[in-house]
Amino acid sequence: MKSLQEDLLKKVRNQKQTFLAGYFVAGDPGVTESIQYMKAAVREGLDVIEVGIPSGNPFLEGEVISRAHGRIISDFETEQDTLDFLAALRKEVEVPIWIMGYSNDVVKSGLYKDIFAQNLADCFIIPDLPLQEALELKRELPGRLIPVINDGMADTEITQYVDGCPVVYCQIYRGKTGSVIPDFSSLPTFRARMRKITDAALMAGFGIKSARDVGQVLGAGFDGVVVGSQIVRLIEKNNQTSYNAFIRVLASMKETGKIRS
């Protein structure tokens, strides 16, 4: 449903609203339970569901998310298993669905073609996609790629990645997911640099673990923020009450970034 994506971006651009995205590994801890956790998160204020495609080699992930991939990889042995999960999820939530996956699992396998053809997701985030392949994918799927950018890239490289993209994933640090962020002080500078390059919605992620972290990111002027490892950790603990409360508190921090330049 492209309108879901368009509605989100209109709120960001026209109403200056911020958004909260949550990362989930598809099918964790079980196919039915996974969708229920995602539905609960939307009820508590999540604006975007980022679905991690199960991988046998989640090399960018820290221990928490790697364990989730390991728990459910046997339930996603075929491409159809993934498509069936996404189709079931699409029927249950009315927020944008963004696919997060590795190039081998999503692009080189051709999985993205079927996801796109069946309208099972709104955008794709491929963190290990080389520039030339990203340019090719952007031509094939206009407006559907969310490039992953870090502050160590040159402006010329960033410009090529982000050109024509409605949303940009700003990686707060270079490393594995779930690591501790030592310092948020450089975020305003990173955001200002990105804003000079693109007018796309800027979403920051990697290492965001708490409501305080969310508040710092949005307070630095980013349009959105994604939380991953802590959500996956709470799902692993299987405590629905704590999980719901955590999402609710995160969502309450969206007010932090409401008045932005």
From TrEMBL:
Keyword Electron transport appears in the UniProt entry: no
Q: What keywords are assigned to this protein?
A: Amino-acid biosynthesis, Aromatic amino acid biosynthesis, Lyase, Tryptophan biosynthesis
| Gene3D superfamilies for the chain | Aldolase class I
Q: In the record, what terms sit under GO molecular function?
A: tryptophan synthase activity
Name of the protein described by the UniProt record: tryptophan synthase
Query: Which family does the record claim for this protein?
Result: Belongs to the TrpA family.
Q: Does the keyword Transcription apply?
A: no
